[in-house]
Amino acid sequence: MDKIVINGGSKLNGKVKVSAAKNSVLPIIVSSILSGDKCIIENAPMLEDVCVIVDTLRSLGAEISINKESNRILIDTTKLVYGEPSSELVRKMRASFLIMGPMIAKFGRFKISLPGGCNIGTRPIDLHLKGFTALGAEVNVGHGYVEAKANKLIGNKIYLDFPSVGATENIMMAAIFADGETIIENSAEEPEIEDLAKFLNSMGAEVIGAGSDTIKIIGVKNLKGTVHKPICDRIEAGTYMAAAAITRSKIVISGINEEHIKPIIAKLTEIGVSMEVNGDEIIVDANRDLRPVDIKTMPYPGFPTDMQAQMMSLLCVLKGTSIVTETIFENRFMHVQELKRMGANIKIDGRTAVIEGIEKFSGSEVKATDLRAGAALILAGLAAEGTTEISDVYHIDRGYVDIEGKLKALGADIERKYF
Description:
Elements: E1 2-7, E2 13-17, H1 22-31, E3 38-41, H2 48-58, E4 63-67, E5 72-76, H3 87-90, H4 100-107, E6 109-113, H5 126-134, E7 138-142, E8 145-149, E9 157-159, H6 165-174, E10 181-185, H7 191-202, E11 206-208, E12 214-218, E13 227-228, H8 234-246, E14 250-254, H9 262-271, E15 274-278, E16 281-285, E17 294-296, H10 308-316, E18 321-325, H11 335-341, E19 345-349, E20 352-356, E21 365-367, H12 371-383, E22 387-391, H13 394-397, H14 403-409, E23 413-418
Parallel strand pairs: 2-14, 3-13, 9-10, 17-18, 21-22
Antiparallel strand pairs: 1-22, 1-23, 3-5, 4-5, 6-8, 7-8, 10-12, 11-12, 14-16, 15-16, 18-20, 19-20
Helix pairs in contact: 1-2, 1-7, 4-6, 5-6, 6-7, 8-10, 8-12, 10-12
């Protein structure tokens, strides 16, 4: 069993490069189903979730080769066939459900087991199914499976009750070959949505307005292959920004897009961290007094829920009272109990956490309960007095490329051990 072991108290210094965004790469890989040709993804992050989605496509007949030295993925879907993907693979990761949209578009039918992933909330798929139904598919749910059939998908106007990222992506891909126009209103505006649209358009799709709250898809007959380099991971960038803040350090983070991390920059600036953006680099200087703040997670361009846990670790060691309100997922405070093991003073009331700052964390044995919780515990360990051992680190590996190696290169006393 892997564990990440951290001896806290070291200052960070140097430069760290952000990898490509997992939440962008996964739907892009899935959307290659629509091409029926060869697609190349450059600078792909070599993560466990990427391996799972690749294996899922392979189980349907896609031929995929991965070059880990160049971080290049070659996807050939010319031999893709209709089939039911492995339930074991689908239950490993919620993003596997994104296969449904393009498979319905390509074959007119699809059956898949209900998805798994981090246990951070119910994250219902009803908005996905609402979209498929609006496009003319007959959808049935039962016995742990979802099945959809359609002789021909027809463009329609679809209003999402909530700007769900997954539903926006799935409906967008399902509508690529639909007759006429599809309009998704109250769509998610995340940068990853825009990146998916760029990939689809480079294959010959007509997707207009991605990145806004209204997306139009004009149906086309077919798509061709393409080459694409995904956007950087704004959550990984934010995690290293928080790492600099919690250790009161000064570091340079490269490979960033300032527009994508504006909500994180704004909140860290409010805390008192100094930041200077130079092109695709940001200098983060937290060697100063920092103050508590209140945070409320919101859909993009609001403060990202995927940064809530990491920021909570930082707020725990800032003198005074901070309040964190989680509006996206109802079960995303599982890291609180683990932070309390390290001395945090946090009280939970529904979806609100009240944090009274402590002087410092104490090293302890803790468990990563989900991906971002694991990142939060690493940050806490960096700032703790003594040694912190984090178990269940497979959660962390789902979203961070060699996080211990990158932090070690910045001066952290951190390593992965096998027990």
